[in-house]
Amino acid sequence: MGYDDIGREELKCSDYNQEYIRQRMDGAPVDRNLIIITEPMIINCLNELMPSGDEGKYARMVKLDIKMVTYLKMEYRSISEIANLNQLTNLTKLQLCNNVIKRIQNLDVLVNLVWLDLSFNSIKKIEGLDKLTKLEVLNLHRNFVKTLENLDNNLRLQMFHISTNKLDNLENLRYLRRLIRLRSVALQGNPVAMDPDFIHYFVAYNPHIDLIDHIIVPKTEKDIANVKHKHVDKYAATEDKLVRRASIVEAELEVKQLHKEAFVDGLQEDEFWNLLYETDTEGKVLLQLGDTDDIQVMYKELFRRATNDIFEKGMRAHEQRQNEIRAYHIAISEEIEKVQKPGNDLTEEFVEYGRQTLKDIRLLVSLIEDNERRVQNGLAHELPPEFPEFESHLDSLMRDYVKRLHDIWFMLIHHEMDFNEKMEDVNDILDRSIREIITNWLEQLRGQCGSLREVEQQLNGRLQEALVTYGEFRLSDTNIPEELHHLVSDKDALTNCIQMSHDHHVSVVDGKEDQICQRVKKWQDDFSIGLSVNEYERNKARLNEISHFIDSHYSYLEETRGLLHATSYIPPVRADQECTEQATCQPLTWYEKLKKRLRVREKKFKQSIQPKQSVAPVKKGKMGAVPTRTSFIL
Questions:
Q1: Where would I find the H helices in 37-116?
Q2: What Rg value do the Cα atoms of the chain yield, rounded?
Q3: Mean pLDDT, residues 104-125 taken together
Q4: Rounded to 5°, angle at Cα 484 from 483 and 486
Q5: Whole-angstrom Cα distance, residue 40 to residue 37?
Q6: What GO cellular component term, any one, is given (predicted)?
Q7: For the chain, which domains are there?
Q8: What is the pTM of this model?
Q9: Measured between alpha carbons, how far is 222 from 202 in angstroms, rounded to an integer?
């Protein structure tokens, strides 16, 4: 799907009550009950998005977890304020079009949002999008926006609908130059679009944009724009700096995201050392007492080495996990193609066979009905001698058609269930492999955190020695702030200050270790559950696909009216349908076994989505003389 197709699909929200639009655009009051988004409203909208029929029944078998939702559609609900979306942290697409929203707000937690539709609202200012750094599509069609602004952090934006708003400043369009990935912009219906020089000005200042109002900008228009606006060069230097800055910022955001995914954010270079003193009031005081610079430099370097070691091992573990996952997806894709190819070939062959067979059945039905009609209308005294042959041949064709269709159903279902069992085994292997990688890394993490605690303990001892001695014999030093004289002259107060700083540092190390372990545990639980959910959904979709194929082709047979003229029993296509003649329904025994397997698989799936114990307990620390912590066990 190209940008143009995406844009046209997104603008489906434009099908709205025209009188309501007229009142809003004219500034007239709209008689609507103003509503704030609530959790029950969200649940209701999610239920409405579920499919109907058997597919919906399968979807409702899994308990709705609002935190796992990726798409939410809430249109035509007179919503006036965006609120209560805090749990939807995995949301990637949000449609709030056709409401009465006046302000963009309370979206900061939706950090995974890629698609945001706020068209047909009452928004006057672009704001509240700073945290949506993954946003690629933004639709503000038919609002009241007058200025392009506050999109500096949305550097991944590729498509932007701002048509039918209040933009009236031609120079303001240069703002889009900094959005280096932007490729499609809709501006039609704004006052600025009425300017005779609109297209050429816009193209000259935004050469990276390929589509304007869903139309590709011709090269001839670009050439004319460059000739008409030669002076763009004098602005280019300044604006190109913004472009380069945007590129740098985007690269930095990607690196930060990578570190976050590897659970090593905040551990590079001196970041963790700085964190120790960020909220350490006592430590900041101690840094002002002199004669500790060498000690601080030495132990800062030891901290840097330890945290860099954690960082590097964490990045290696992340790469190992990603390599395992990539290899898994490649292998599974190849295996799915390999397993489904025979079935696809068989269904294609049946389609060709079915087309000709149904044609012959229609012909025979026509002959039978014509002869019966002639007798009923008195145009013939009796049925022709070959009439029984017509019926016999019709029965033969239908039985062969149904048998072939049944054989296809049997083979596809059988292969899918075998493949499903293999997938469960492969998923278990991948899950164990990922757990092993994580367990090994957490062992290393605990060892390095033990080293950090030992370094902190040594630092505490050196500071006790240096500062207590310094406080007793160097009080006359003029470099000490006067307000700290009471501290260095009181040995107990100074010792207490050093100990409080030490306790704070140990607490920060403990907190960082616990935070990483908890995040890893959550990721691992989500990953394990995700494997089961994905396979469950794939298997369900495949079974539905098979059933739809069989039911569709059986309905084609019913449409021929051949079954109305059958002179012998035509068994059902699928073994799960009612069958009264045991001799012609042998698959029923096999199908009972299949249903039992399905029930077992359903039970296993429900058990699998319960969080598992992530890793085996690991001893904290590797430095025997240093006190270790045992409060957090995964």
A1: 39-49, 53-61
A2: 35
A3: 94
A4: 95
A5: 9
A6: cilium
A7: 23-230 (3.80.10.10), 282-348+396-563 (no CATH)
A8: 0.61
A9: 10
